[in-house]
Amino acid sequence: MDVVSLRLGKKFESIIKQDIHDFNFGTKTEYIRQAIRELHERLETERAISRLAKVKGFAKRAGYKEPTPEEYERAREKVGREILARFKSLQEKSN
Fold first, then answer.
1. Is-contact 76 83, C-beta < 8 A?
2. Is the dihedral of CA 66, 68, 69, 75 positive or negative?
3. What is the DSSP letter of 5?
4. For the chain: N or C, fewer Cβ within 10 A?
5. DSSP H or E stretch at residue 76
6. Taking a C-beta distance cutoff of 8 angstroms, is the pair 25, 38 a contact?
7. Neighbouring residues of 86: CB distance < 8 A, sequence distance ≥ 6
8. 56-93, pLDDT tens digit by residue?
9. Is 64 within the bounds of a domain?
């Protein structure tokens, strides 16, 4: 495993110490790993949305109908529930 050193500065050090205490992280390493996991998950979600936008453009050119606002809302709610469940699962694993 590679070792990474970084300088955080007093502000970030203070934030991390408080979060470790408030959210029961065992170590700074656990805290930082979780932060990296969450950032990676967010970036993957953005990548998927970008791909979906490209597919949507292709589908529109191919003659598929545009979803209604209600269909979009249902899809947003479903994805939101899935993301929340995944986040809770990751949070439970870190504790």
1. no
2. negative
3. -
4. N
5. helix 69-94
6. no
7. 41
8. 776 666 676 777 888 888 888 988 898 888 888 888 87
9. yes
